[in-house]
Amino acid sequence: MLQVPMTDRSAPPSSISTDSDAAQSNGSSAELKGARKVDGDGDDEDEELRGLLMPDVRDLPLAPPSAVESNFVAYFAPDFMKPGHDQYVYRHPNGLCVVGLAPTHVAFRDEGGVTGVDFNVGKSDRSAIKVTGKRKKNAQHLESNSMLCKVCTKSDSYVVRCCVKGSLLEVNERLIKQPDLLNSSADREGYIAIIMPKPADWLKVKATLLGLEEYKRLKEQC
Fold it and tell me: Are strands 193-196 and 166-171 parallel, antiparallel or unpaired?
């Protein structure tokens, strides 16, 4: 009787086990490399975020920007109608314009600086105007060369003008009792008036004004 040799199916699968272990090892290595790569990308993102939230102190300005610098665009009207009558116009994004004396205004050269402010110009007292409501009732409509007030020094007086055609919404009444605000902070608490020009009128007057850097260059040459 012919006997067929039996194959030993229970033989130790050493080669199969070895190949399986190698595959698992390769898979684990690949996953580890992938994880390291993801971690590396995460580190890069963290570093970028850290750079945005915590800038290099060497890149920071010596002093933080003022409220005026943050919220307004500065324009200047040098020698407005008369030599030395330098004024500023600070424009807010909502269209409002704050008008005042530029630091190079001739009044500041007089001994003692500004000693008085008078809003009574001609037949109108600008400080007596009280604007009310959303429609700005009682607002006066003025031209760019209209008088706002007179600033006085010990030896002279100077007319301050609107510089902007528009509706006069407010004058700084504090200057009547505290004219020295012009000497200490003419660009902040010592502003002269607030005016709302129409968009078309603003575009016209803007073309005649100087930006901050242009103004600085002009005064450096003088």
Answer: antiparallel
Q: What is the mean pLDDT of residues 157-169?
A: 96
Question: In this model, does residue 183 exceed pLDDT 90?
Answer: yes
Show the tokens assigned to 145.
């060369």
Q: What is the spatial distance between Cα 100 and Cα 193, in angstroms, rounded to a whole number?
A: 7
Measured at the CA of 121, the angle between CA 115 and CA 122, to 5 degrees, comes to 145
Look at residues 195, 213, 199, 182 and name the one whose alpha carbon lies nearest to residue 76: 213
- Give the other-Cβ count within 10 Å of 214's Cβ: 13
Distances (CA, A) of 126 to 66, 129, 191: 29, 6, 14
Q: Which residues pair with 153 in a beta bridge?
A: none
Give the confidence band of 47 by pLDDT, cuts at 50, 70, 90: confident
Residue with tokens 């605000």: 181
Whether 52 and 60 have beta carbons less than 8 Å apart is answered as no
